[in-house]
Amino acid sequence: MAHAAVGRICTTICLAAASGGVTQAILSGLVQMASRHAHYNTNELANAVVASLVAVTGCCAFISPPWAIPIGFFIYHTGCFIEYCLGLHDGARVFPVHAVCGLWGLLCVGVFRNTCLVRELYENLCYCLNSDLPSSVMIRAECHTIQMGGDVHSPLVTGPG
Fold it and tell me: What is the pLDDT of residue 120?
């Protein structure tokens, strides 16, 4: 089971990075056709891939791989739009990559999480999940935090009985 989680995490990360890069390449091509501009901006392509990785890293263990595509698809361009609307001048595009995409990645844990994957990951993390050891209490508290509004009376959080 633990090896399946590692494979799923790697797949999720690769899908998000690919969706961000492909989206940037398509949009850059459309802009190039519309403006008759002769080159692609490789910095923007790299930023889109990094932004997708930033967005998916926080939630990659808790979501199904198909959800990685919409997570990485539009967020960099949304961040650039927010930066433009706020009137920020950021030549390196640090704000869209780290602030906007980082916040989006934080929210994705709650929006796209799969409760079965959360349970599977934490049961494999510590075989004593339902014991009374202090490590079990910490893991239960973290599971409750990751569930973000999940059922407080779930067996994962409260243990048996």
Answer: 76
DSSP per residue, 58-80: TTTTTS-GGGHHHHHHSHHHHHH
DSSP conformation class of 151: -
d(CA 114, CA 74): 22
| Residue 58 structure tokens | 């926080």
Q: Residues of the chain whose pLDDT is less than 50? A: 128-129, 132-138, 144-161
Q: How far is CA 53 from CA 2, 15, 66, in A?
A: 22, 9, 15
Same domain, residue pair 81 and 102: yes
| Domain of 133, in residue numbers | 115-158
Task: Kindly list the distances between the CA atom of residue 131 and the CA atoms of 70, 85, 109, in Å, as whole numbers in the listed order.
Answer: 38, 51, 26
- In this structure, the answer to whether residues 105 and 126 fall within a common structural domain is no
Task: Retrieve residue 68's tokens.
Answer: 């990685």
Domain identity same for 35 and 72: yes
| Total number of domains constituting the chain | 2
Residue 76 in tokens: 């960099």
Return the axis-axis angle of helices 101-112 and 42-57, rounded to nearest 10°. 40
